[in-house]
Amino acid sequence: MDSLKKVALILNLIIITSCAESLDFDQVNDFVLKPVFTAALTYFTVQPFQFFDETGVQENSIEETSEIGIFQNNTITENVVKMVFNAEFKNEFDRDVSIQLDFLNDQDLPVFSFAPIYVESEDLNPEPYEDEIILADNPDIYNAVKIRVRASLENTGTQMNPFDNSEFEFKSSITFFIESEL
Amino acid sequence: MRKYLFFLLTLLMIKTVAQNRQILYNFAELPQASLLNPAVKTNYKFHIGIPLLSGISTDIISTGFNLTDVFAKDNRNINDKIALVLNQLKENDIVSINTQVEVLSGGFRINDKMYFNFGFYQEIDAIGNIPVDFFKLMTEGNEPYLNKNFSASQFNYKADALGVLHAGISKEVNDKFSFGARLKIYSSALNMESTNNTGTFNTVEGSNNLLTHYFDTINLTARTSGLVDAETDEYIDDEGAYIGNTFFGSNMGLGVDFGIIYKFSPQLEFSASILDVGFINHTKNVKNTKVEGNFTFEGVDFLFNRDDSANFWDEINNQFKSDLPTTENQDSYISWRPTKMNAALKYSFGERKSRICYDNRPKDFYTDALGVQLYSTFRLSQSQIALTGFYEKVLTKNIQTKFTYTLDKFSSANVGAGLSARMGNFNVYAMLDNILSYRNLSSANHVSLQLGFNLIFN
């Protein structure tokens, strides 16, 4: 019986001395997912011949439009608080180029327009462009279904040489700042 | 989302060197010890386990972090704490839980040399690597990790909920040699597994655009049975359905255990067992998903083609689905049970005493024993080995104890203790592993215990 008492004593000691540090599981309510995702957006390279129509007349602006699905995604619309648009470019043309990016609704009307990007002639290393969109301040952007890029040439009064191999390069990315509670 | 987090944390709270019950192995002629070695010799006429209480076992492991790391009351922001934990975790950190509840258990002596036992237990067994890269991507995004490969191979898990109906027999061939075998019928309520995945996702500085995203050699496979209703394609959320399927549900399997005991002398004994050599054939409510391929994304290349206004977004979506297709099917599949092996060498010494057995004959025994045990299993493409040194002490003819020290890749300070006591026909046993962690359970990476109550009749 003495042995039983000893064992009981040992087990009691383990149980009595065992403990658990006080924990606060409610902290999980304070947890906020804040990932930052960055993604390639649009890019293009244009040459002088692309500004000429089939009759050989130079047009001072060309544009391209594409549908985009990001604002139809609930994860984006419910959790993205900010987007940052980054662009880099290189202008080998002998005239200035401006780039205008717009988000369009299903009526092809702009619901958000970035500030125009101006690139001086033959500027091969201009400052990168950055603009941010606070989604709460721009709720119309949720109606965007398309993105339109318009490239415009400075009107110098003279046509470019359509056979010139100089290029205008444009590269861009977009970064999503997400905040989501569990 | 909160539900998933809770499930994840619950898994992480639970830690085990996956099913190693080194204290129970060959201990005190307990009926439950025969589940670890069917050759275990007994000296009673019959036994009955107290239903639902005869064998309760849980074993939980989380390597890399513990509850205190995340939930301590320390006035630190939980986002910062989780980020710190994720930075500390390594690719080979795991979470594992194994819980068994014996629903029914019994046995009786056929003759002097043979003992028959049977039972039914329910088991939850889950093990998985922590997909650190995935959690980093979800909590921090890809922006802080340009050029980093997020690995799909970290999705490596296997989870089962099943019922096991079993019957076994131990036979004493002669004074030196005994063997035993057990047949098991598995009834799976839930199986989820995803192993041998490959592939990476990364974002790098691009050449045509600012960034380029690569999904490289992706090969992800996930198999489930019992989770998704095959007819409605919806998750089964009826707990009763899961419990019911542990008893002769539609996803059945077979397995066997074998064990031997050989006495070199009255004092030196070798024993070994191999457990759960078996499989489950999953045929009902199966859903298999596979994602395979490569995909590179550089953004939308505007061509300014005045003759052809393309829908670039749709083209990219279609290309993604074409290059990295997700396929689903309901094909039946086989999952293999995690086979375990035990071996032990035991040297008995001390005072030589006698106790009266079922046939009223005295049986000699030594009051002390020392030995070593080796445990091995192979899970998630990795072998897990544990080496245990033990000391057994018979305190009285009705009270036996066992103390263990176990070395494995998860711990070098695992001290365990077990006690089995009989009061008349009533037997109670309790075993605690990793006792040092009981100083602060919240900081424990490994908690393991077994306890149970039996009626044993001489």
Structure description:
The complex is a heterodimer of chains A (182) and B (458). Chain A has helices spanning 2-17, 74-79, and strands spanning 32-33, 36-46, 61-67, 80-91, 97-104, 110-113, 117-119, 129-134, 146-153, 168-178, 180-181. With 182 residues, chain A is mainly beta. Chain A starts with a helix and ends with a strand. Chain A has a single domain (33-181), classed as Jelly Rolls (Sandwich). In chain A, strands 3, 5, 6, 7 and 9 form a five-stranded antiparallel β-sheet that branches. Chain A contains two helices and eleven strands. Helices cover 12% and strands 41% of the residues of chain A. Chain B has 458 residues and is mostly beta strands. Chain B has one domain: Porin, CATH 2.40.160.40. Chain B has six helices and 22 strands. Chain B has helices spanning 2-13, 67-71, 78-88, 132-140, 239-245, 312-323, and strands at 46-49, 56-62, 94-111, 114-129, 150-151, 157-172, 177-194, 198-205, 211-225, 251-263, 268-282, 286-297, 300-301, 326-329, 333-336, 340-356, 362-379, 382-396, 399-408, 411-423, 426-433, 446-457. In chain B, strands 1-3-4-6-7-10-11-16-17-18-19-20-21-22 form a 14-stranded antiparallel beta barrel. The longest helix of chain B has 12 residues, at 2-13. Classes of the chains: A mainly beta (182), B mainly beta (458).
Features:
heterodimer, A: 182 residues, mainly beta, Jelly Rolls, 5-stranded antiparallel β-sheet, 2 helices, elongated, B: 458 residues, Porin, 14-stranded antiparallel beta barrel, 6 helices, disordered N terminus
Oligomeric assembly: heterodimer
The 3D shape of chain A can be described as: elongated
Report the CATH C-level class of chain A.
Mainly Beta
Shape descriptor of chain B reads elongated
- DSSP summary: helix tally of chain B: 6
Task: Please give the largest β-sheet of chain A.
Answer: 5 strands, antiparallel
Strand content of chain B: over 45%
Measured between the Cα atoms of the first and last residue of chain B, the distance is 55 Å
Classify the fold: give the CATH topology of chain B: Porin
- Summing up helix and strand content along with how strands pair, one would put the structural category of chain B as mainly beta
Domains counted in the coordinates of chain A: how many?
A: 1
Chains forming the largest contact: A-B, 58 and 62 residues
* Main sheet properties of chain B: 14 strands, antiparallel, barrel
Share of residues in helices of chain A: 10-25%
Structural class of chain A: mainly beta
What's the number of extended β-strand segments of chain B?
22
Q: Give the termini distance of chain A in whole angstroms.
A: 56 Å
Radius of gyration of chain B: 26 Å
**CATH fold type of chain A:** Jelly Rolls
The strand count of chain A comes to 11
Helix content of chain B: 10-25%
